[in-house]
Write a structure and sequence with these properties.
By secondary structure, the protein is mostly helical. The protein has ten helices and two strands. The protein has one domain. Bound molecules: zinc ion (ZN). Zinc ion (ZN) binds next to loops.
């Protein structure tokens, strides 16, 4: 029998999953983990949101050295006004702000359209509650970040421009499609949400 000595020095039966648990890199738990990762999340949306919360998206502010070398300043492709940083692109950009304003009409949670950077933190205490209201908010949040990021990239790679209303429509349609696959409860609040989202 193959044995393994764990971090405490105790011998135990070898299993790959146990060894991985011992060896894998660990970081501090973040309170907004459940805002991003949950059973109904859309993985590609969650991944982009995860990168954003970790400030790891490749925005243009990471290309300052390139700018200095070429003597030019790269601006936000959505508004063409200021540098494309994560804070600007997702929260203070006039284009993004218009998208958030449209999305907010579906969000039953006290948040201003100018405080999205703090949204994951504010939602964290409620994020583990597996009820439709919070699942919808989390889906909308991640979808909004994903499609704003997608629109920024579409413009950089010349794949056409969409208006804030068109980006909102894609967000709405994507979340609604996800809601159609839900197993809904028969509570009054669930029935109201189904009606609001026109999900049968
Ligand atoms: Zn902008």
């Amino acid at each position: 029998m193959v044995m393994w000595r764990d971090l405490n020095g105790s011998k135990c039966e070898f299993s790959i999953s146990q060894v991985w648990e011992y060896l894998r890199p660990r970081a501090a738990h973040v309170p907004w983990y459940s805002v991003i990762w949950f059973s109904h999340c859309i993985l590609r949306h969650a991944f982009v949101l995860w990168l954003l919360m970790g400030e790891r998206l490749k925005t243009h502010d990471r290309l300052k050295a390139w700018e200095i070398h070429h003597g030019t300043i790269i601006v936000c492709p959505l508004c063409n006004l200021v540098r494309d940083t994560q804070d600007h692109l997702f929260f203070s950009c006039p284009f993004a702000s218009q998208v958030w304003t449209l999305v907010l009409q579906h969000i039953d949670f006290p948040i201003s359209s100018h405080a999205w950077k703090d949204f994951a933190w504010l939602l964290s205490p409620f994020a583990k509650r597996n009820i439709a209201r919070f699942v919808i908010i989390k889906l909308l949040f991640a979808a909004s970040v994903y499609f704003i990021w997608q629109e920024r990239n579409r413009r950089i790679f010349k794949k056409g421009n969409r208006s804030p209303a068109q980006v909102y429509e894609v967000i709405y349609a994507t979340v609604r499609l996800k809601l159609m696959s839900f197993k809904w409860k028969s509570s009054a609040s669930a029935l109201r949400l189904k009606s609001d989202w026109k999900v049968s």
